[in-house]
Amino acid sequence: MTLADEIMAWGGVEVSAMDVYSDIFSLGFNEIQMENEPPGAYKANPIGYYKNNDAQKGHFRIMFDDTFETTLKVLQDADFAILNGITYFGRKNVQEHASTMRAMIFDLDGTDAKHLANFFSGAIRGNAYPVPNYVVMSGHNVHLYYVFEYAIPLYPNIKLQLKELKFALTRKMWNPYTTTIEKPQYQGINQGFRVIGGKTKIPGVRVRAFRMNDHPFNLETLGEYVPEES
């Protein structure tokens, strides 16, 4: 059984990149900046990054509410492109410019169909892990998307707390039942992930997304899966 077959066997429904990003960033609801909107509203935007194999350097792109899909197509056509669940002030996705977190995303490497089935079984039947809103296939890797019901402001102390929460959830979800890789791979909250609909390392294979859970998360519900100190 392939990864896609396993995801659909557990109720996953394939969705488009715009379905996912519209959900994460509340596109069309005036929460992120329009392309020519005056800056007085203090809104922030997702920032994409892309690079082509024949280019010496990559490019950052601001993802505006009204031109999101057009810019997304530029990223999807590139050889390498990433985006995450955070909005930023300015033109680069550097952590000190991070404004709000809209989704917490995890990279689960070394996961074949058997291990992914173990994860779904633990999450759906055993409540051992939170059931992700989206599961994204990025070539050889699986990404788990947890979308927040409200934007979390990224004040310096909140960034540290979210990092600890993400590390604790990584320790929880990354185990011999869910991956063939022994040591968990910890990633900060600013980590980027291959753009849905974009290219993977496998020639001709695109990043695919599946909806698993319609209910958004808050910090309290995610916190139920980790020790209190995290």
Please tell me about this protein's structure.
By secondary structure, the protein is an alpha+beta fold. The protein is 27% helix and 23% strand. The chain has helices spanning 3-9, 17-25, 68-77, 113-125, 156-173, 219-223, and strands spanning 13-15, 47-51, 59-62, 80-83, 86-88, 98-108, 134-138, 141-153, 193-194, 208-211. The chain has a six-stranded antiparallel sheet with strand order 1-10-7-8-6-5, with helices on both faces. Helix 1 (3-9) runs parallel beside helix 4 (113-125). It starts with a helix and ends in a 7-residue tail after the last helix. 37% of the residues are buried. The mean pLDDT is 95.
Write the layout of secondary structure elements.
Blueprint: H1 3-9, E1 13-15, H2 17-25, E2 47-51, E3 59-62, H3 68-77, E4 80-83, E5 86-88, E6 98-108, H4 113-125, E7 134-138, E8 141-153, H5 156-173, E9 193-194, E10 208-211, H6 219-223
Antiparallel strand pairs: 1-10, 2-3, 2-4, 4-9, 5-6, 6-8, 7-8, 7-10
